[in-house]
Amino acid sequence: MRPVFVQFRCSPGKTYEVADAIYDREIVSELYSTSGDYDLLAKIYVPEDQDVGHYLSEKLFDIPHIVRTLTTMTFKAF
Description:
Elements: E1 2-10, H1 15-24, E2 28-33, E3 40-46, H2 52-59, E4 66-73
Antiparallel strand pairs: 1-3, 1-4, 2-3
């Protein structure tokens, strides 16, 4: 499994609704509310045999009220 971090910017007033929808998908390891440019930060383990872009698009990015995402790939833990 490959850990990937995804930040979500939500429509105003919809952060809790988006967070609930993300949790309902049961694919995030951790989900946090954050300050700054994005509203939520998720840690997701993507199976090694899956394309990250397709996996995230199919599993998460169709949730209503997600305005923008930022995906950070990981390579090696130190």
